[in-house]
Specification:
Largest sheet: 5 strands, mixed
Number of strands: 10
Helix content: 40-55%
Oligomer: single chain
Structural class: alpha/beta
Shape: elongated
Distance between the termini: 53 Å
């Protein structure tokens, strides 16, 4: 099996597990799970699955391929079909099935049929996951995490899967987070708790706009470092516009727990982690009292001189956004207005 990074292995194994669940859900018996041996790096040459219907003596060999693109390279498809044909002949199976996380065309299906292989792509996967909302959520998570861009590659499929989703959206979660934030004091002992609650708040507000959340384990040394980094999925027009205007694919979040407004030095310290070449040009700062005059000047310098976008929210504004989300209101208003004010300020 191809040597992969841990994240790649997680995606590819996750897709194979999903396909096995879909097939068993539809009444197939799993005779062999070759993919488990491949993951364990056992020296085997086997198909991912060998399946059969309970009342049918004939077996079917199955291969599942996770692609991080909506289109398949024709050479890759032919190689996958040839591999599956060999597995079918080895197992003396009557039929073969190739499942891919990509679009398939009539020409592709005809090529597969010539080799005695049935080809399933997005159309079949979406039809099958519609019967089980939890599996629709499973497929959606894989596509979001596998997207090589900011969320546009699989946008059409994700829109369908969102309608199929069985996830229970939390109700009143914003009010709970806001109440817990009120209990945290602006002191060193409360830093960790404040960051944890702000993390929860940001994920609750922007769960459709970001994914691949990566908390940062920052030392308690008084410096201002981002507490959270996430990849843009651009599920809202505001974030889509920022992604395009600033060439950004990742957003950084900072949650300093100090009573006084943040000054020039705090913003410059945090800005060191922004980088347009690294596609990280955006920082959202949540602090108790916002910015002082020096902090606002640092934000202006960052935008004017380096093209870095730093948006600031006070704790009161964050709690207002949480309440708005609970009520089903547009909670991006404060960010939209702040962005507009910055871009129409000729002093920047």
């Amino acid at each position: 099996m191809l040597e992969r990074t841990p994240r790649q292995r997680e995606l590819h194994v996750g897709f194979k597990m999903l396909c096995e669940k879909l097939l068993t859900r539809d009444g197939y018996m799993i005779m062999e799970s070759g993919w488990k041996q491949k993951v364990a790096r056992a020296p085997v040459q086997a198909a991912d699955l060998l399946i059969k219907r309970p009342s049918d003596p004939d077996t079917t060999v199955v291969e599942s391929k996770f692609y991080r693109s909506r289109r398949i390279d024709p050479v890759l498809l032919r190689n996958a079909l040839d591999e599956l044909k060999r597995h079918r002949e080895t197992k003396k199976s009557k039929s073969a099935l190739l499942i891919v996380s990509a679009q398939t065309t009539p020409a592709m299906r005809q090529e597969a049929e010539k080799l005695g292989v049935t080809l399933w792509g997005f159309a079949e996967l979406l039809q099958m996951t519609a019967k089980t909302p939890s599996l629709a959520d499973n497929l959606a998570d894989l596509l979001r995490d596998g997207d090589p861009s900011t969320g546009d590659v699989f946008a059409a499929e994700l829109a369908v899967l969102e309608e199929q989703s069985g996830r229970q959206r939390p109700r009143g979660e914003g009010a709970k987070i806001a109440a817990d934030l009120d209990l945290v004091k602006p002191m060193r002992d409360g830093n960790k708790r404040f960051a944890q609650l702000c993390d929860r708040a940001i994920r609750y507000l922007f769960s459709e706009q970001f994914h691949r959340w990566a908390p940062q384990n920052n030392p308690e040394d008084g410096l201002f470092r981002p507490d959270l980094i996430a990849r843009l999925a651009a599920g809202h027009d505001f974030w889509s516009a920022l992604s395009g205007d600033f060439d950004g694919r990742y957003g950084l979040f900072l949650f300093p727990n100090q009573a006084e407004p943040l000054g020039h030095g705090a913003i410059l310290s945090a800005e060191r982690f922004l980088s347009r070449p690294a596609l990280r040009p955006m920082l959202l700062v949540v602090s108790r009292a916002g910015l002082d005059a020096g902090g606002r000047r640092a934000v202006q310098e960052a935008l004017r001189q380096r093209g870095h976008l730093i948006l600031s929210l006070t704790l009161a504004e964050l709690k207002d956004m949480l309440t708005a989300r609970d009520l089903g209101d547009e909670f991006h208003d404060v960010l939209i207005d702040r962005m507009s004010e910055m871009l129409t300020d000729l002093s920047i």
